[in-house]
Amino acid sequence: MPRIAEARQPAEPTSAEQRDRHQRILRAASKLGAEHGLERMQMNDVAKEAGVAIATLYRYFPSKTDLFVGVLHSQIQHLSTVAPAGEPPETSRAAAVAEVLIAAGRRMLVRPQLATAMLQANNMAQLQGGREYAEANSAFHRVLLDALRVDEADEEDLRMVRIVEQTWYGVLVSVLNGVISVDEADADVRLASRLLLGPRYDGAAEHDA
User: Fold this and answer.
1) Helices (H) and strands (E) in the chain, counts
2) How far are the Cα atoms of 42, 124, 144, 148 from residue 98, in angstroms, in the given order?
């Protein structure tokens, strides 16, 4: 019987030259994804825009899903938390998470087609698994945990940030589909963060008792 090909994991850039090519590919994908979206963008065009061979592109990103999850990961890496560790402890940690998510969402929504492409790729990658998705997911959760001022996360902490992340994705999809405005999305994210995270991280449950 013929062997069924397994999905190949993306290669990891190790040298400075490889990292430069990797970044050029991500920048090219961001530009073309913003213009054409996930379906209409062609991998050959990305390779040409980045100035790399098509084999090099596929070495780092075996599919468009991997490529746009990589773009999402690169954006996550540039996020900074609104509530740094030195901030007074009375500052609402739920509000800090909300502001991180709002800043990330507004940055993504500047280029709606690219935002849609990244979310579509993230959904597909969630089903497929793989290193790019796992790294992007872990990095995003770390950003939210930092905003919550949680150094050593337990299962409950991870569950909480996962639920907030999923809520945020849903809010972004509603904006991209024209269901709500950006201002409404900001208000929704703040409300969701307060309701989901406030009782555990800001002591709202004890205050209400």
Assistant:
1) 10, 0
2) 35, 25, 9, 10
CA distance linking residue 196 with residue 34, whole number of Å: 32
Name residue 186's amino acid. D
For 127-142, how does the pLDDT look when each residue is reduced to its tens digit (9 = 90+)? 777 666 777 788 899 9
Q: Tell me the HSE value of 87 on the side-chain side, using a 13 A CA sphere.
A: 15
Tell which residue, 209, 200, 41, has the closest CA to residue 120: 41
pLDDT digits (tens, 9 = 90+) for 32-78: 999 999 999 999 999 999 999 999 999 999 999 999 999 998 888 77
Q: What is the CA radius of gyration of the chain?
A: 19
Please name the residues in contact with 100: beta carbons below 8 A apart, sequence gap of 6 or more: 79, 81, 82, 143, 144, 147
The single-letter code of the amino acid at 169 is Y
Q: Are 86 and 170 in contact (CB under 8 A)?
A: no
Q: How far apart are CA 6 and CA 103, in angstroms?
A: 38
- CA 164 to CA 81: how far, in whole Å? 15
Q: Which two tokens stand for residue 25?
A: 């590919």
